[in-house]
Design brief:
mainly alpha; 11 helices; 235 residues
Length: 235
Amino acid sequence: MSKRDLTNEQKKLKTDLWIISLASLISLSVYIIFQDQLTALIKDKSLNIIIRTLIAAALQFGIAGLGITIDMVLRKESPFSYGLRKKGAAASILLSGLCSVPYIAFIIFSKQFSGYLPFRTVWVTKEVFAGGFPTNAIGTFIIAVAWGFFEGFNYVVISDKINKLSPVKNIWMNNGAIICAVICILIHGIVGVTANGILEMASVFIIIYGMLVVKKHTGNAWGCVFIFIFLWNAF
């Protein structure tokens, strides 16, 4: 690749990252501005639970999913090019799961463990799970796509683009994984100042950094999706 081609490629990658960032920021701004109204709407049990789940999912998708979707459509990129394939899936899921062990251990030893429930922090989860069929199946699918698939895959796409923009040869230095881990910590407010807070922050960093390093070396992204469907906020 010539210097000119590399410069053009870098410009495209920077534009891609701006598109993703702006889509997330605009969606987050909409939520912040209309937070009271949206919260009341999503928690209004007089409305059908599927409608409320779709509203909440649309907000979540806007923050973590809309940007990468717009970008992939504009660039005519296939999601399969980011590692959504069968080859290496088992290794990706297993190794990514191992990256969650420090966080799970922290939850248990800090006496925060209160059972296993995927998506426990999503407002509509318990109501959806308690609903009868097919409401529970439809609602669970929507939740898994918005809070599981897209949040995990969002980090994959962002990390890959950062690494292409600023490649590093050192196997342990992964700029995309580091930046995504920091973003996750900041977005979820896991900035520790106490001993427990620092341990939690470190264990979350290991999850995000680890799963993205696993993705890079297995070439498979399903481990990242697995983390956000089955382990993230499940304990």
